[in-house]
Amino acid sequence: MTTKVEFKDISNFVHVARTGSLTRAGMISGVPKATLSHSIRRLEDLLEVELFHRSQRGLQLTDAGRALLDNTGRIFDSIELAASAAQRAHSSLNGKVRILGSAEFGTSIIGAATLYLAREHPGLSFETRMYPSDTPLPEQTEFDCLIFVGTAPSSDHVCRKLGNVGYRAYASPLLLQRLGTPKSVEDIREMPGIEYTRKGIAEPWLLQDADGQRIGDYNVRFSVHDYWMAKFYAVSGEAIAYLPDFFVHYEVAEGDLIPLLQEANESEKISVWAIYGAARHRNPRVKLVIDTLCQNFDKLIRHPGYALVRQYP
């Protein structure tokens, strides 16, 4: 018999029993008086007991009603405590945020952002992982926020644009001393270059000179699928690399790399996205991370400028 009892009827019974009035119970719970009365009647019919003595003074619990309240009231108190604890945990900025980064620039962008946030909010902790961009989008349960470079994937996730990344050809002064500085896209044709492949496809070099923008040809000296490796070869003076501007900001400032030809058009820049489940944005920690990335994107992608290197003369 008791297996047919519905949770909502027990909940309505507890409200009525603790207030001693259908009217007061309805005001507190927001449940219509008629619904509360129907729940009580249904419980009494299912349990085959009388739960209240009804009189002009209100509703008084019977022995059966008191026994039911004693057992169910504790359960509802525990539920309320658990719900309050969950709300406190949810509203707190203390706790962990799990961030994935697509393989292209995850280390640079996520490292700078989490370092900045960790210093501003000591109660935050981070779990960071790199996400191979040539694999399907991971399940939402595996991350709170994914930083993705390129065309936003089609999914049920929310995609919020953080900013744009511009590309350009870069070369070491050592290489330019040996081979000369190219003045046009055609000048690069016979020069050694570093091919970056994504999903097995070589990334095109969209180069800009006085004659306009064209896809540049080059003599493939190295083929890589990691931008850090491409930058290593370029700084070493072995070949020209086609790299995002922020990724070589420090090397250009230090004179280790020199930008070639003209800057690409703004329309050719690649977008960077924060991807997350819609429900995740209700979490204040996740919201803080995403808002910080959006508001400080241009600054964060140029940070920290290899602070460790500066410790040495």
Automatic annotation (TrEMBL):
Q: Gene3D superfamilies in the record, alphabetically?
A: 3.40.190.290, Winged helix-like DNA-binding domain superfamily/Winged helix DNA-binding domain (1.10.10.10)
Residue intervals of the HTH lysR-type domain: 5-62
What family classification does the UniProt entry report for this protein?
Answer: Belongs to the LysR transcriptional regulatory family.
**What name has this protein been given in UniProt?**
LysR family transcriptional regulator
BP GO terms, sorted: DNA-templated transcription
Ordered alphabetically, the record's keywords are: DNA-binding, Transcription, Transcription regulation
What lineage does the source organism belong to?
Bacteria, Pseudomonadati, Pseudomonadota, Alphaproteobacteria, Rhodobacterales
Record's superkingdom?
Answer: Bacteria
Q: Which GO terms describe its molecular function?
A: DNA-binding transcription factor activity; sequence-specific DNA binding
